[in-house]
Design a protein that fits this description.
By secondary structure, the protein is of the alpha/beta class. The chain has two domains: 2-255, 3-Layer(aba) Sandwich (Rossmann fold); 269-487, 4-Layer Sandwich (L-amino peptidase D-ALA esterase/amidase), CATH 3.60.70. The protein contains twelve helices and 24 strands. The protein has helices spanning 40-47, 70-76, 92-97, 113-126, 141-154, 171-187, 199-205, 223-226, 229-236, 319-329, 402-422, 461-487, and strands spanning 2-11, 14-24, 29-33, 55-60, 63-64, 77-80, 159-163, 191-195, 208-213, 216-221, 240-244, 251-255, 272-274, 278-291, 298-309, 337-342, 350-356, 359-366, 372-373, 391-396, 399-400, 436-437, 441-446, 452-453. The strands form six sheets. Strands 13, 14, 15, 16, 17, 18, 20 and 23 form an eight-stranded mixed beta sheet that branches. Helix 6 (171-187) links the parallel strand 7 (159-163) and strand 8 (191-195). Helix 4 (113-126) runs antiparallel to helix 5 (141-154) and helix 11 packs parallel to helix 12. It is elongated and about 100 Å long. The termini are far apart. The structure holds adenosine-5'-triphosphate. Residues 11, 16, 34, 36-42 line the site of adenosine-5'-triphosphate (ATP). Residues 2-239 form the ABC transporter domain. One of its GO terms (molecular function) is ATP hydrolysis activity. It comes from Jeotgalibacillus campisalis.
Length: 488
């Protein structure tokens, strides 16, 4: 559709865009990214024919840009420039109707049914029909932006050039506008080239990205290949992290500000509060967590940690909601709490501290083995899940990588199995060695300050402490449980 070959351009003597080459397929969305002043708008001006090339060629449908008359070009390309505050005193309908100009034959050409249909569709699709008879001067920035998009769409272009289209739009209209463009690429065979400052929006909606720096191409590829931590950090001169999107295989860039959580918070045994109803810990600052808890599960940042006693026959249609209510009622905020449940007596918890070199951890375990399970034979069992019994918490006074968080979960799980072996705990149904209970839960939480921990497998510094700590605490917690059972 569009082909840019070795294109250079700029203003007067100054060459701003240098030797840029790329092609855009029909129905593709190409995003142009780059820091302020990197030449994005200049390149757009070159593509739309406003700014002549100093070198190279640009073709649209294999025909050189210079071979098109301005009216012919307007039938192919529509441009939505960056929104400016000034606007003429036209109504919304008049403004959108101007988009039909390239399709009209002569000054006094009749307004055709096709013109009317294109204007109505464009206004409907962009949600501006309700303002149809209002002056665009009376609209908000976001509403005006949608009117100019409607004008561009009414033009029925094959190629749409956009400069920061989501500027001024709230989240909902950003999504609507970009969903609409994506849809038009298939329904109207539209091709889109758009400048973006928001890297994450560009990642979500663009098929490919062109990243510019000082007028030159840094990279031209899929979002996954362009939005890499090292590339973005170098080009934008900012600390970032590239993370996964929860639903799509598209990277999302998160800024890492220079201000972090200030003081270095250390988790110690003294922070635990144990009552007959629960074990609770409120950290001085939020901790990064990974857990399989009832609330606050998965990856997150949490400040409150609760392991709550529930009766053996606890049954609730929505234990998540019920647990949130319990946590809120007790004065913690459910959104910042990792909450677990256990049927064992919480007074029997075992909490111990471990330290090696610069690194320290606190392990807390509540354990009961009434519903112990041999995972290898669990497929033979039919009974329902009951409240969790072996709940393990591991607090790390260090900074963990993502790998370390996951390896810490694995190491802790292996250690728990070892504790059950040591005590010869059996699955009461199969009479084979148990590997856990039916609903065990695990938390790894880290202060994310101090010693950096890249790995947490069994023979790493952290892994060794987790291995020793979880085995010792689990064994002791099961002994406490057995003592109470035999004693009662
Ligand atoms: N009309 C002009 N005359 C002279 N120089 C210009 C003109 N327009 C832009 N420039 C210069 O060209 C360079 C690139 O500007 P351009 O607007 O293309 O950057 P950009 O990547 O779109 O920036 P931004 O993200 O800030 O919109 C800048 O150094 C700018 O000062």
């Amino acid at each position: 559709m569009l082909n840019v070959q070795d294109a250079s351009g700029g203003y007067g003597e100054q060459t701003v865009v240098k030797n840029v080459s790329f092609g855009v397929e029909q129905q593709e969305i190409l995003g142009i990214l780059g820091p302020n002043g990197s030449g994005k708008t200049t390149l757009m001006k070159m593509i739309s024919g406003i700014l002549p090339l100093k070198e190279g060629t640009i073709t649209i449908r294999d025909r050189d840009l210079s071979a098109y008359s301005s009216k012919q070009l307007a039938k192919e390309i529509a441009v939505l420039p960056q929104l400016h505050s000034h606007a003429f005193d036209y109504t919304v309908r008049e403004t959108v109707s101007m988009g039909r100009y390239p399709h009209q034959k002569g000054m006094f050409a009749p307004w055709t049914k096709k013109d009317e249909a294109a204007v109505v569709e464009a206004m409907n699709q962009t949600g501006v029909t309700e303002f149809e008879h209002q002056s665009i001067q009376d609209l908000s920035g976001g509403e005006r932006q949608r009117v100019f998009l409607a004008q561009a769409l009414a033009q029925e272009p094959k190629l749409l050039l956009l400069d920061e289209p989501t500027n001024h739009l709230d989240l909902s209209y950003q999504k609507q506008l970009l969903d609409l463009l994506k849809e038009w690429t298939t329904t109207h065979e539209l091709t889109v080239v758009s400048i973006f400052h928001d890297l994450n929006i560009a990642s979500l909606y663009c098929d490919r990205l062109l990243l510019l720096q000082a007028g030159e191409t840094v990279r031209l590829s899929s979002p996954g290949e362009v939005l890499k931590k090292d590339i973005v950090e170098k080009v934008y001169q900012a600390r970032v992290e590239a993370q996964v999107h929860p639903e799509l295989p598209k990277p999302q860039i998160t800024l890492l500000p220079e201000h972090g959580q200030n003081s270095r918070s250390i988790i110690t045994k003294d922070l635990f509060q144990i009552s007959g109803k629960h074990i609770a810990l409120t950290a001085p600052q939020s901790l990064k967590t990974i857990s399989s808890a009832v609330i606050g599960a998965g990856l997150g940042w949490h400040r409150h940690f609760v392991n709550r006693h529930v009766p053996m026959d606890y049954e609730c249609a929505d234990s998540y909601e019920e647990m949130c209510r319990y946590v809120d009622k007790n004065g913690w905020n459910a959104a910042s709490t990792v909450g677990m449940m256990t049927a064992v007596m919480v007074e029997d918890v075992v909490i111990r501290e471990y330290q090696q070199e610069e690194l320290s951890i606190v392990v807390a375990v509540t354990a009961g083995v009434g519903n112990a399970v041999d995972v290898s034979l669990a497929h033979k069992r039919q009974e329902k899940q009951t409240a969790g019994t072996i709940n393990s918490w591991i607090f790390v006074n260090g900074k963990l990588s993502d790998e370390a968080f996951i390896q810490a979960m694995m190491t802790a799980t292996e250690a728990k199995v070892k504790a059950l072996q040591q005590l010869n705990v059996k699955d009461p149904v199969t009479q084979t060695l148990a590997t856990g209970t039916s609903t065990d839960s695990l938390l790894v939480a880290a202060v994310q300050k101090g010693s950096y921990v890249q790995y947490a497998g069994p023979i790493t510094l952290l892994g060794k402490m987790i291995g020793k700590g979880v085995v010792e605490c689990t064994v002791k917690a099961i002994e406490n449980y057995r003592k109470r059972k035999n004693g009662s």
